[in-house]
Design goal:
The chain is of the alpha+beta class. It contains 4 helices and 7 strands, in the order βααββββββαα. It has one domain: Alpha-D-Glucose-1,6-Bisphosphate, Chain A, domain 4 (2-Layer Sandwich). Strands 1-7-6-5-4-3-2 form a 7-stranded antiparallel β-sheet.
Length: about 150
C-alpha cells in the first residue's frame, strides 16, 4: 500500500535539508508508541537508523538502511528501506523528498510503500500509519517556519 503526504513550509530547501537531524526525527514521532533512537547515522546512502519501539508490554526493533540519496538544484531526497521491521510489517520503503518551491519555500513529501503481508491487515494498518505521518505536518511547519 502507499501513503503520500506533502507539507509546505516557509523555509529554503537547503535549510530544511540541514534540519533533517536526529533531533528532528525524535520530534516527528507521535507519543505512541514511544520510540528510542538507538542509532541515527543521517540521511545519506549507506547510513543506518535503528529504533526501539515500546508497545508497553513488548518492544520491537526497527532497522532501516538509507539505500539512495540525491541532491540537485531542485532539492534533496533519500530512501530508507526497512531491513528489520516490527512484527506487523513485512515491507517498508520510505522516500523522503525535499523540493524547492518557486516562492522560496519547500515542500516536504513523505512517500511510503508498506505491506503487512495481507490486504486485510494492510487496510487495518493504513489509517494508523497514515495518522503517524499526518502527525508530522504541524511539526515540520513549526520547525521550518521563517
Amino acid at each position: 500500500m502507499k501513503i503520500k503526504i506533502a507539507t509546505h513550509v516557509n523555509s529554503e530547501w537547503k535549510k530544511v535539508v540541514s534540519g533533517f537531524t536526529k533531533e528532528l526525527f525524535v520530534k516527528l514521532n507521535p507519543p505512541f508508541p514511544p520510540v528510542e533512537v538507538q542509532q541515527f547515522d543521517g540521511c545519506i546512502k549507506g547510513d543506518k537508523v535503528i529504533l526501539l519501539l515500546n508497545f508497553l508490554l513488548f518492544k520491537q526493533k526497527w532497522i532501516s538502511h538509507i539505500t539512495e540519496s540525491k541532491e540537485d538544484e531542485n532539492g534533496f531526497s533519500f530512501i530508507d528501506v526497512g531491513v528489520k521491521l516490527p512484527f506487523f510489517l513485512s515491507r517498508w520503503k520510505h522516500h523522503h523528498i525535499i523540493e524547492k518551491r518557486e516562492d522560496g519555500g519547500t515542500t516536504i513529501i513523505d512517500d511510503i510503500e508498506f505491506s503487512t503481508g495481507t490486504m486485510v491487515t494492510n487496510l487495518l494498518f493504513y489509517p494508523l500509519l497514515y495518522g503517524q505521518f499526518l502527525y508530522r505536518k504541524p511539526v515540520y511547519k513549526k520547525i521550518f517556519s521563517k
